[in-house]
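Self-study notes.
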Amino acid sequence: MASNKRKSPTTETKQSSYDIPWVEKYRPRNLEDVVGNEETLVRLRAIADDGNMPNLILCGPPGTGKTTSVHALARQLLGSAYSNGVLELNASDSRGIDVVRNKIKSFAMNRVNLPAGRHKIIILDEADSMTAAAQQALRRTMEIYSNTTRFALACNVSTKIIEPIQSRAAILRYSRLSDEQIFNRLRYVCEKEEVSYDDDGLGAIIFTAEGDMRNALNNLQATVSGFEHVSQANVYKVCDQPHPTTVRKILDSCVKGDTAKAVAEVKSLWETGYSCSDIIGTLFKVAKTYDLPEALKLEYLKEIGFTHMRIADGVGTLLQLLGLAARLCQKVQVSHVDS
């Protein structure tokens, strides 16, 4: 792959660049700069143009731009009144029924000078972690103050929001970002920060991020602060995940039906110190893109999924991984017999 070398920044520039995490430094300030989820952003831009914001529920995986886009929408709607007209509560804040009755209610009752026809906005991040009682209290508040206040609830799973609130809000769904979208953003940040990088290094960050822009930028900054050059080897050292090439060798042995070699490679990887969940997670990601007949790939993913479930339940032993390697080898042998 082509290597894009950049000059190392001066000490002062480097020092100042670490004052703010890159996740915050490069957080989009308006809807045009938000990356990915174009269909959802079209709806948000229409709301910004119209000026009448409904109650919103933004649901999707972490790091896909839910909170960023609702803040960008609030900035476009409220302009200079943004700081007075927006209340944000995160999962780290106490958000029981008392907070809904006191803090949220008092903000909804307060008079604030806003542009004509605009509403105050209350942003509840990680809303799916609110208690059922707090959500019940919230639905009445949403109704009473609907003339002056709008609510935006960001969550990972919309089904954890009670149905009465879901029926009072427009639901916007976010999906994981594509590899190309993350790659373009990472390259933009690298050029702005004058970071030395190569395309394989950015590819490794994309592999570890799994469609999560926040994770990708954090991994990029951690790699730069640790090694000053973003290469594939440096990224996997920082992210502490098994190298996909090593995991691919295990799958190569399984596909050949060589149980002894597959078991030896799993043992070797285990002895380097990686946890069971790290190994099984990388194994799943590599298996998804591995070149196999469709039926066999589905069998492989099913076996890896069942083993992942057992490990998540607490049985994180080497025996689980060795058993998985043996079963994967067996699947190939059975498919050869069937054919």
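Second protein, same conventions, sequence then structure:
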Amino acid sequence: MATTASFLPLATKEASSENSSSFYDYDYLDEVDFMLCRKDTVLSFGKVFLPVFYSLIFVLGLGGNLLLLVVLLRYVPRRRMAEVYLLNLAISNFLFVVTLPFWGISVAWHWVFGSFLCKMVSTLYTINFYSGIFFISCMSLDKYLEIVHTQPHHRLRTRAKSLLLVAVVWAMALAVSIPDMVFVQMHEHPKGVWNCYADFSGHRTTWKLFLRFQQNLLGFLLPLLAMIFFYSRIGCVLVRLRPLGRGRALRIAAALVVAFFVLWFPYNLTLFLHSLLDLQAFGNCKVSQHLDYALQVTESIAFLHCCFTPILYAFSSCRFRQYLKALLATVLRWHLAPGTSQASPSNCSESSRLTGQEEMTSMNDLGARQANNGEGGIVKHHSLGGVDGIQLDFHSMCSRPESQ
């Protein structure tokens, strides 16, 4: 998390405020090509831009993820694994945005929350920074197994194994946050001005390079490659079997991959260029200043994932839109009859059961078509209740309660 460094005179040793996830800094002074590089303008820009942007993300992310949590907890009677991953993603993003006001105040002023919150907020930030990305990958994997591998009882899609995967994701995110638990602490400079960042002592550059590489690999490259693989395989199945709604499903799949790339690529590219700058592979003071500006802007853009990604996944499901309408109808009292508002949950449950039955029929048909296609037979459209083909909903298709 970007925080301001203390304003230091030219003759003093530099002190930096580190990012709790990637551990970069916006130093007031920086040694580039053996010259002192002043960054007054970078700090002045950050003191205005970052608190404003963090506040915007906090408001949007808090509202969107709270709404998602209410809908999932109130109107989803049986937790399918797609909803379990989405629920954990919403929890992760909610906890992530809760840390942003602390960093916004720290950037605009200084760290005023004490030593315990310094370490706790930094750790919470990193855990949910990574877990949010990991759960997006889990949702891609689950959708891949749903559509590409259509066996009724796929060995990788049992409920126990899926819940184990959820536990593994949180454990991995916790493990990645260990440097925050160990190294992050409060520092006073000058007197009365406190900052919260990691102190790596004599191994500062080595740790910064390692943690940036970790962010590039675990936080971007591997999840992106996984999404490209899973959704490309899904796309191949949809193109081959030609179910009804294929175009919408392909557009949603493409949108999910593009959204992840657009939000995260600029930030990770800037981190990579910062690492090259630390290794003195290129650059001068002006380049260092430009990269600091770019890092503040691209980081803030990347943080928008906690506002838009859960909504993008949720609204790809017709079932979720039905639940949302039921919630809005209850809250706004749109029902004309007195007893209608109390009947809303049961109506929604009934709609869920009907949707599940339709999905089971569609899934059996899709599996039969894939099996016939695999045996070299001619794939034909089947008539389901007078409707030719398969009614396809990308997020909620292929759901089978028995496979959970």
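Instructor comment on the second fold: The chain is about 65% helix and 5% strand.
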